[in-house]
Each structure stands twice: as C-alpha cells, then as structure tokens.
C-alpha cells in the first residue's frame, strides 16, 4: 500500500493532538508525519506511534520542503486562508477543519457518511472542507432518516462543550471551577467566553448576526443544506455548557410523510457510524461523558411528536474533538485515498 507524507497544521492544539491519535488508531498509511505549528510551538515534540517528532514552524515553504502530500489544517481560519494555498501549490490535498472554505462553491464540504461523492470536487481548488462540529453529528443522524422519509424541516438546540472553543477555553472552565471551590469565583476571569462558563450555560456561540442568530447557528443552517444537497429548513439555537468534551443536540425533524418510531429507530441503527442508545426506562441515553474518545455518533430519546405523526424528536451526542473534527478529517483523507486509487 502506498504511504503518504502527512502534515498536521496546528499539531499542538486540541484538535491537532486528536488527529494524531486517530491516525494511529486507524493505522493510516503515514510515511512521514510532519507536525506544524507557530514559531511559539516550533521545537516542541509530539508523540506518534511511540516516536518523539519535532514540531516544525509553519512557513510558506515548509510544504514543498517536506514533500507534503496530505495536509490536515486545524489552526484557525486566518491560518488556513494564508497557508492552505501554499500547501496546494506544493502538490498536497488540504483537508481544512476551519470555517474559512466551507461555503466556497468550489470547495466540497464533506461528511463521508453523508456525501462521500463530493470528495471528487477537491480538484477544483485542492481543498476539502471539514464541516462545523455540531453540523457533522447532526447530518450523520439526518441522512438515513431523509433517505427513508424525506426531511422538510429541522429544529435543533445544541449543548456544546468548552473544547469547541479550544484548549484555553477548557482550561478557563477548569480554573473557574477551582476558584469556585476556593470561594474565589467572583475573582475568576473569563476571556474565552462572554460570561463565566463554570456552573452556567451561555446561549451564545460566536457573534450575533443581524437576523438575531449567531454565526455558529447560521453555520448549521447553511452547511446542512450544502452537505445534504437539499434546501431543508433549519433553525438552530447553540448553547455553550460547562462540559469539557462532547456536544449534545436536541433535534426535532419534520418529515414529508408520517413516521413510525420503531421503524425510524431501525433506520438509524443501520446508519453508518451511528450507535443507538435508547432505553429511557432504564435511564440509558447518550451523554457527553459516555462518548469521549468514541468515533461514533450516539442517538437516543427517539420519540414521535405528541401532536403530529410526521415529526420525530431525538437526542444526538458525539465527541466534538473526534466525530466533530479529527475523525471526520481522517475519514475524508481515507476516502480521498480510495477515490484517487480508483
């Protein structure tokens, strides 16, 4: 099997670290791993398959110098905007985890379980975009239901972990909890969020738009339509909660036809990389604490609407650093290899 030189841009960040773990676990055909980061982190070491590998500085020339063939980006939109073109120019395919390229009509936005055929569009600009973490787990659950019943509208409320805002956001929550137990919470600073996150929920993720929705909420609206190639009505309310890892979503789906709960549960059970955890009488349902380090999307609390037979409610949970970022990016790379080898 051919092996590839794989660069990880943002290798010392939360998602970059997770990308390396996933590459190891799936035995990805890596010839050389090239961890890249800013000058502040260059010189540090990361572990990959038991070896210490030195982090190199991200520069305009490093992709050509290191003969990079696959570049996984997860270091912020401005970094992707500046450096992804240099990776493409050097001959690499870029799989970008930021929002910068997602809505570019020439860049495929891919969840392999939903629209793997779109990967072929990478040749337009040499880039494949990784969707928003909250979008990924939702469309994974929506796809089999749409195929079976036809979706007209989706209403979703998300409960998103602090890790979605990066390592420093997780550290901020932990520090606030320490300050709480030391009776110093009033003095505890908040820089990553507009308010204290410990012992609190914040109904704002990213900036508010003129329509009253946040950028995070509009990402879910627009990305869902692009991924599913369907003009589905989507409305989202995105909330930050004091959880370290694992995004949860309460999803309400309106179908074109009536739906049977047991049949829908079986449709979801057959969905790729979906795990049904749905025994509420015994308090069995997905929770963030049960999905950490898992590469599947968990679905529970599946029930039909009280008033209308064409509406279904469900609870969808996944590890945002894995399913919502690193795992999806690696799966895209795996599918890209399959596509290119045909």
Secondary-structure topology with pairs:
Elements: E1 4-9, H1 14-25, E2 30-37, E3 45-48, E4 51-54, E5 56-57, H2 62-65, E6 70-73, H3 77-89, E7 93-96, E8 127-129, H4 133-149, E9 151-160, H5 167-181, H6 215-228, E10 233-240, E11 247-255, H7 261-269, E12 274-276, H8 288-291, E13 297-304, E14 311-318, H9 322-341
Helix pairs in contact: 1-9, 4-6, 4-9
Account of the 3D structure:
The structure is a single chain. The protein has helices at 14-25, 62-65, 77-89, 133-149, 167-181, 215-228, 261-269, 288-291, 322-341, and strands at residues 4-9, 30-37, 45-48, 51-54, 56-57, 70-73, 93-96, 127-129, 151-160, 233-240, 247-255, 274-276, 297-304, 311-318. It has 342 residues and is α/β, with parallel strands linked by helices. It folds into 2 domains: 4-131 and 325-341, NAD(P)-binding Rossmann-like Domain (Rossmann fold), CATH 3.40.50; 134-320, Dihydrodipicolinate Reductase, domain 2 (2-Layer Sandwich). The strands form 3 sheets. It has a 6-stranded parallel β-sheet with strand order 5-2-1-6-7-8, sandwiched between helices. The protein has a 6-stranded mixed β-sheet with strand order 10-9-11-14-13-12. The protein has a two-stranded antiparallel ribbon with strand order 3-4. Helix 1 (14-25) packs across helix 9 (322-341), helix 4 packs across helix 6 (215-228) and helix 4 packs across helix 9. The longest helix is centred in the C-terminal third of the chain and has 20 residues, at 322-341. It is globular.
């Amino acid at each position: 099997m051919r092996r590839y030189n794989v660069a990880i841009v943002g290798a010392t960040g939360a998602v970059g670290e997770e990308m390396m773990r996933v590459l190891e676990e799936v035995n990805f055909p890596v010839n050389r791993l090239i961890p890249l980061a800013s000058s502040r982190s260059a010189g540090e070491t990361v572990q990959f398959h038991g070896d210490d590998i030195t982090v190199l500085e991200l520069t305009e020339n490093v992709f050509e110098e290191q003969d990079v063939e696959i570049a996984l980006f997860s270091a912020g939109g401005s970094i992707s905007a500046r450096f992804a073109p240099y990776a493409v120019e050097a001959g690499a395919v870029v799989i970008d985890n930021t929002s910068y390229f997602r809505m570019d009509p020439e860049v495929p936005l891919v969840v392999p379980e939903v629209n793997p055929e779109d990967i072929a569009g990478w040749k337009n600009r040499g880039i494949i975009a990784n969707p928003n973490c909250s979008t990924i787990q939702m469309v994974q659950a929506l796809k089999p239901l749409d195929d079976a019943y036809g979706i007209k509208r989706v209403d979703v409320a998300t409960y998103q972990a602090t890790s979605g805002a990066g390592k420093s956001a997780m550290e901020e929550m932990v520090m606030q909890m320490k300050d709480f137990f030391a009776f110093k919470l009033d003095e505890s600073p908040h820089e990553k969020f507009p308010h204290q996150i410990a012992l609190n929920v914040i109904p704002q993720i990213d900036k508010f738009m003129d329509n009253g929705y946040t950028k995070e909420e509009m990402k879910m609206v627009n990305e869902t339509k692009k991924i599913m190639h369907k003009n589905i009505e989507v409305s989202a309310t995105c909330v930050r909660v004091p959880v370290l890892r694992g995004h949860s979503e309460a999803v309400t789906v309106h179908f074109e036809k009536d739906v049977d709960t047991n049949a829908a549960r079986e449709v979801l059970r057959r969905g790729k990389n979906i795990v049904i955890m749905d025994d509420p009488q015994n308090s069995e349902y997905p929770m963030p604490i049960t999905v950490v380090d898992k590469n599947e999307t968990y679905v529970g609390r599946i029930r039909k609407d009280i008033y209308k037979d064409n509406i279904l409610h469900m609870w969808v949970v996944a590890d945002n650093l894995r399913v919502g970022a690193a795992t999806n990016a690696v799966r895209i790379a795996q599918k890209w290899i399959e596509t290119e080898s045909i």
